## 1
Amino acid sequence: MSWFSPILMIAVPLFIAFLIPLLGYIHKKAGLYAMSLTLLFNMLTGFYFLPKVMVKPIRVIVAGYKPPFGINLAITPFSIFLACLISTMGFLVSLYLLKDNTTETQEKFAMLILLVVMGSTGIVLTGDIFNMFVFLEITSISSYALTAIKKDRKGSEAGIKFLLVGSISSTLLLLGIALIYNQLGTLNLADIANRFSQMNPKVAFLAVSFLFIGFGIESEMFPLNAWAPDVYQGAPAPVAALFSAVTVKAGLYAMVRFLFTVAAKSVFIKLLLVFGVLTVIVSELSALRQNDVKRMLGYSSLGQIGVILFAVGIGTADAMQGAIFHFVNHAVLKATLFLSVGLLAKAAGGSTMEDLKGIGKKYPFVAGVFGIAALGVMGFPPLNGFVSKMLILMAAAKTEHIVLIMLILAASVIEGVYYFRVLQVMFKEPEPTRIEKKAFPVLSLVPLVVLVFAIIGIGLFSGYLMPYLKGAAMDVMNRSTYIAAMLGSNGGAL
Amino acid sequence: MIGPNNVILIPILAGILAYFLGKVVKPAREGLTLGSVIAVCYLVFRMPFDKVISYSYSFKLPYAFGSLSFGTNALTSFFAILIALSYLFIAFTAFALVKDKDYHDTFYLFFNIVAGSLLGIVYSRDLMSFFIFWEMMTWSSYFLVIMNAKNPRKTGLTYIVFNVAGAYAMLTAMFFVYAAAGSMQFDKVATAIALMPNTKVLFVSILFAIGFLVKMATMPLHVWAPDAYTESEDSFTGFFSGTLSKMGVYGFLLFFATIVGFANLKGISSIKDTPTVGYVIAWLGVITSIFATFRAIVQDEVKRLLAYSSIAQVGYIVTAMSLGTALGIAGGLYHAVMHTIMKLLLFITVAGVIYRTGKDRFSELGALITRMPLSFLAVLFGIIGLAGMPPFGGFASKWVIYMSLLKSHNYFLLVAMIVSSTAAFLYCYKLIYGIFLGHPSSPDLMEVKEVPAFLWVAQVPLMLALMVFGMLPGLLVPYISKAVAALGFNAAFNSTNMYTLSAALGGFNGFTVINVLGVIFVVVLIWYTLFFPKSKKLHRLDIYYAAETPTEETPLHYGYGIGAELHRIPWVGASLRRHITTFYEKFAEQVNGIASVLKDILFNGDGQIYMLYAVLTLVAIIMFLGR
Amino acid sequence: MRELLTNTHYIVLTGVLILMVIGFFGALTKKNLIKILISLGIVDTGVNLFFIVIGYLNGKTAPIFSKPGLTPQQMVDPVPQALVLTAIVIGVAVLALGLSIVIRVYEHYGTLNVSKIKKMRG
């Protein structure tokens, strides 16, 4: 089965994505089904390779050049774990889209979503920094287009802001890569990591700063995330779900991989700690006074990202484990929230507090799903958000960051205020009479059911995930293992 | 053998099952709850009371935190029994009252989860499981609070903010000790705290105390309580004020007596042979009870009066416990039991009255004694207990608390507490007068029926319990002694039989007291029947005032105004006009203001500024770190 | 590779710096969305030029086997050129998409002033 390699997780979606416009001629819905099937394929491939990679990292060589030359895929526990997460979330969102979408944009939708998922998968799987940049750009460009896909006022405005800031990110990334290439003459991540100390310290610092900001924009770190709330508000709900579950995770992966494995700069890791806490506080405070629930969820998503950045910034293996767990939980929870709000907003004709008044009485199931996910985000036991939050804070306690813990917990109280406010608006206001109750398509509810089971299941059976999390965290923390696996002559080439 | 971990699971699973099965077969909700109640009571009573058993690990699920540990000892069993019995009585109340409400499904879901979490709190043997169940209690009780609230927005948010903030204060302290101990096990944490420097111990104690004081609704952290108690679903309120608040008591004892140890705290700094922290908290408790008592007197809503009364009564418990003496803790535990019984009884009865009349204010009620004699009797028993008068149970517990204050020479605390206890007579009287005596406020009150029969199942045993504990005050002594011993204290009582309660400063024989009072009662009864036989029954409109004849519509129920004059008493009136709520509202306003300004400045909508942020951050990083 | 920098390099590097400063200045001060996009394009050009400079070796030829007998030692580094080609394509894609979104924005707002396109804020 030598043809069956993880590179298919990138190649197949790319191929299908460009095939989709043609498929449109066969059947109107063919593109959407092709998207879902491709993402299902990606998911199954990911889970097929997950246990193998946990044992031994895989190195996929493209076009016959051995590392450090040529483009290669570096598939380590952390990357395959995230690839699985990304493709699973992509698949669930695509199921939701099968019935959700309006007519004329279907093919573009399907194609762009495939490209976003493919790009994000590429970011986490690649072992080449320029390749990572290219995948990041594919993801970003598709994201700009997806944000503005409805051609409405909000989408266009969010799209242009996203594009402007994203351009800065791509410029800085390219500059950073150029500096590194200038010094080391290589683009292979493991090779850069291996020889990073040979760089002129001043140039190295400049390069890391550029890349830090570049990845910071992609991973929605304060103060580089100002575009994000607009995007979450302006983009269609499933797209927002995809952004918070998939693209941000890829951006965070790039940040973590670069700072821990490649550069190993402790100053910048400490900086993440500071920026993480800032992100949490600013985002939660900003979420407090929102009237649009989707925008509020956007801010809340930023807050969770802040928690992840904080955890990453602690810089211990325990904290990393918690952070990676929070990747999963945040993806699951935010996807649930955005998808359920998407359904409710469609029924109510808008996503502001006034629109959603009493909607919980009309659609108890979907609103209940929203409620469970909200409890999960706030970190109430026994749901999944609680477990990862505790792991992160326990790791923070071990490193004596008590003040930061207090700040994050204070922000969590604020989080409680605005989520419970939404729940009260949904369930305690009188039932709206203007909305006619009509059933949601079953296919849109399937992902919600799966996600709710995930929220509760991960919360209760978190132990089953721990070996994978540990493997992924070890992968991040031990850069020498990564370098050896990717550069060594006995590297796990297929 | 079925360990505590399984006991916790029974109500939780029953609740979830009841929700889903109830969608198909409606009575399944009641059925499963009943089954769970019976199972929990059976298992809790079967567990050996004072044997220390620890069960490591939980549910056989692989869990991220390794294992959660559970166990029992005398203190745990003491509270577990309290919870199990309250669960039983409240379940029966709910069977009658929640039957045709539209939140019938969610009530049983959350109610059972709350019961399970309370058991979880007392059975847990490490901080992590303690916190898990504490948080589960918070969110599940939140839904019961807003379920039927008139003003869910304010009540719900205040409740959740205070309780979550309290829980997070506790959590911070937890992490603090975890960092030192490297473990969350109670015993390991205790060892680590013993080695900590004094300032850290104080810090941790204060944070933990905040968490528990919030739950016990001690001033100035009580703000959530009056609204939440008043507006929560009627049949749940008894559980809420009677049992949930006792989790604060349990946590307080657990933490201060076993984990930190009063001796340790005393070593850091002490006032009058009491740890300073404890002394301050004792004063907070007593101040709480004074203020809450006065506030209770002026209330017009029945449940709000009881809510303030509950705050005041728990204040006594706080004061007694925080002295850190064996007698004080024994008094606190004794009063915890009595207060649970009284508040269950009163809230259940009031819930029944509200259910039958649809009215919840004294000004709308009155003269129900003829229509609801059993409920009248229940409230009568309840207020005699609440006022701490012989011959019922409330007397014994108050007496132990007074004794503990005397013995530790805290005379000012004692005086303050007596002031509050005396003032409590007023609201006790208002409670029974406003509902059952005087004139009916409206004619339709004369058509109501006695509370539903399911409530009698709760009322009668609770009344009997009050009477029995009054008659046999020594009955609880062995259990309290064992619980106090489990906290590492020597025996507080020297009673030998169940008729007497005696401790360091003396004792009394409850059996004699009740007999003497019984004899007096009979004598007075006979005297009245012999010498006033000619009293005749009057219609309620057989009165005239200012030459007018009242009609059916004329309001004649004036007695509900008891306490209105309090506003004219100089100091009391001023205190009643001021609310600490204003302070918190101002604070919330400030936070909201900051949030608004912050988001408007930072996220001002200009894409170019967003680009500028990126460039400026880069420049800042290069400038500050590049050197 | 630092030691290989020659005067040619420095002259072009100055050009890179000028391009980038102009670009960033335009992107951060001009209010017209199209001008901002053009400025970002100028920054991109600067970065691309920077890449080329890195790979440029004085006196070497293009990395194409255009004449017989040409050895790799006589060529400049081919990798940056490949990278730049990719970067240019990406830049074009972003620009095209950006302009098409700008058209939508203009339809909705009737202005191209970036400071007036802020219905979503706070």
Note: The first helix of chain B runs from residue 4 to 24.
## 2
Amino acid sequence: MVQENIRNFCIIAHIDHGKSTLADRILEHTGAVSQRDMSEQVLDSMDLERERGITIKLKAVRLNYRAKDGQEYVLNLIDTPGHVDFSYEVSRSLAACEGALLVIDASQGIEAQTLANLYLALDHDLEIIPVINKIDLPNADPERVIRELEDNIGIPGEEALLVSARTGVGIEDILETIVRRVPAPKGDPGAATRAMIFDSHYDQYRGAVAYARVVDGSIKVGDIIQMMSTGRKFEVTDLGVLRPSLVRVESLGPGDVGCIIASMKDVRDTRVGDTITVASRPATEPLAGYRPAKPMVYCGLYPVVNEEYTDLRDALDKLQLNDAALTYEAESSVALGFGYRCGFLGLLHLEIVQERLEREFDLNLITTAPSVVYQVVLTDGSMREVDNPSALPPITTIDHIKEPFVKASILVPDEFVGAVMDVCQDRRGIFVNMEYITPERARLEYELPLAEILMDFFDRLKSRTKGYASLDYEFIGYRESKVVKLDILLNGNPVDALSCIVHQDKAAARGRGLAEKLKEVIPRQQFEVPIQAAIGNKIIARETVRALRKDVLAKCYGGDISRKRKLLEKQKEGKKRMKSLGSVDVPQEAFMAILKVD
Amino acid sequence: MGVYVHIPFCEQKCYYCDFHSVVAGDEESFSSVVSDYFLSLRREALYYKKLWEDRALRTIFIGGGTPSIVPAEQLASFILFLRNELPFVAEPEITIEANPHSLHYEGAAVLSKAGANRVSLGVQAFQNRLLKAIGRVHTSDQIGQSVGALKRAGITNINLDLMFGLPGQGISDWTETLREAVALRPTHLSCYGLILEDETPLARWVSAGIVHLPSDDEQAEMYDLACEMLKEEAYEHYEISNFCEPGMECQHNLLYWHNEPFIALGSGATGYIDGFRYKNMPDIQGYIESWTRHTPYYEYTDQVSLDQEMDETMMVGMRLLRGVEEEAFFRRYQVSFRDIYREPIEDLLAKGLVQESNGCLRVTRQGLFLENMVSGAFLR
């Protein structure tokens, strides 16, 4: 395909604005998949993605399109994840494109991630095509959305395409607009090869597969390629494009988007954002923007039964093949035994990994409450990074502690501005700015400790605003903070895995809340179980789980024996999912209870 | 070793009940179904007769449903048929479950003549408002009348089934129920805690918040009260939920708690013969239809392994207050339960839920209340 007839584009949207459905419809319209083969949301391949309705890993699809000008075009659709945890991946897929469809729900209007993604796209100089989706819904209000576009983004209203991805209205328009407005790729076919990896995945048979956009030069089967961040070299065994299933090609030239198979062992060899060059004639400068994904959130993962420790390690090894952002190292807890300290991009990433471990590897896990990384400056002037409350050095050796802050942008209808301010204030937020994007909707900017965002912040925001608030945030740096370690004692014994780091001013309330919450989730046992919250040696709260006086006092006749057996076996299974700490059986949710405390 | 017969008919379904039974229709169709049903019971009995060979049978238990809803003559003739065809001892214990509302002197006399010598009355409570709340059709004054009628008919071995944890039941109600029950001087009393079974009307009402049950602690108190009161009245507490005058244990139920084999007949019934456990499909028409072809109609069958059998022997045996006898277990399996269940036994001893005495392992007072913890420990 001649370079002039290639169009690389992506779809950006706030979550639930219909990005995946639109992608499906475009695939269908260009004949990449027949309607009959179409299961909803073709681009989201993992089961989990479908269930959660979010896109975790982006993929690229090559579409052939004969435009009204009579020419054949290749349209490369690059799917992007739609959640803040994955914003770096979003930015890499944007860097692989020249244009972006900005999808906005016709009834919801512009949301926080609409703006966040738009700004990212503008940073990459992309041609923006606004698409107002879901116009078939009864409460659709495209006029309002057009006004929002004009007022806030300065996009002329007449450029917006009115679409219903569900019914297929307006899809043809989108394709024509892409051909007309998105510029063809500019790269130099004669220059040293540079291709940017925007995604990768691990395949059992092929090893790590890199999805890349060739910027300059070309890559051919048999080339020795080199990763510019690590210098590692691999021989290309296969090149392909996704239509959406893999079709082999002999080479990829400027503007092409495809996958590269080169017997790479795991996805750490194919870091998103890295530049691939060809070893025989390497480029001197990598493409801009590479940075290794850095975990922002850590938690401990422990098998409920110690025997599963090696299974957990094997499972993490396997997951990491496919997830370069996941980090883990062995740790041990007095309460929970041996496990792993794992690092994640954010809470969603954590939940997805945890769920995959339990579902795909059939492991029973205890997840400890997530923690951010604190910078602890000691009295001797040295600094230590601490991502685990129980690893906090003795208080007497600490000079001060710094915690990570983010800048949060929250969009909300006018009537909920007060509620959002309450929530942010309550979470130690520092007000930065407020502006009205329409007369009815405000955008608030706050600086917040990341730790507070982990504590159920978004759910709380949603519930206080009847679900209207949308949130986006970015890391802005470390700040000094008065935080202390809160310990929990069960039956008089401290449980290290229940410790957490909290702000001094909130310690008492959190301690009380956590003790109350634990009382709810720890089932009654044969003996009464005192729960205490402590800071240092000072007990700040106490609750008691009262003793269980009876279990079941039912009839048991002949026909009941197998029924009773099943019931008892089920109870035994349930008990297996609990961690026995001394004589106290503690369910998994207890370790996450801190997140549910006000 | 004995025979269980299931009579899956009721006048009205109780709100808490998830046993297999159907509400009897109009008189004509009901009597025709009952005739067909008893014919099938006979066919089924003859089928198992071959498998059973000549081991002595000591008990018959006719349960339900509400057996007393069926004409006494039909029950009586079926009892005689069983005694005639199967190798029963000379005077087997023959129990019939009955509702106080549907058992009268005439019927009792007929049954007694056929050898029925024990009746288990579904009393549940002595307060009409509580009986109504759980969908029972009888009233409290019918209880005493039934007991009187049974005694006059010569059936003096009488059990009263009582329930605690009923919706709206207070401690004082339960005390009154126990007092009234004891006043009738039955030979045997069963006190069951109400269990909310899924898919029952009561479970739906409770989860919808329309109906409230006494708390777990209140129920524990009620159970405690029953244990104390009945002990004072000279009843022996011999199984978690069962009390009797000395020597009047229910022989049929003992065979369950000893995990012995038994034949079960009837739609929805579960039997256990030589390690073969079967459950008949709870479907009356299907049952009748299948036996016209002399073929069992099972919901499931299961071959119980030796390990499983030992687990179950412990599981049900620990329900008895005298516990599981070490000698008897060894005679039966040629192995000591101490070797097989060393860990759980040590754990239960440490927790104070079981104790050892007179060569038996048995529950402590606390173990009695936490019986699931005890019996669950023996499942491998």
Note: Residues 52-58 of chain A have pLDDT under 50 and may be disordered.
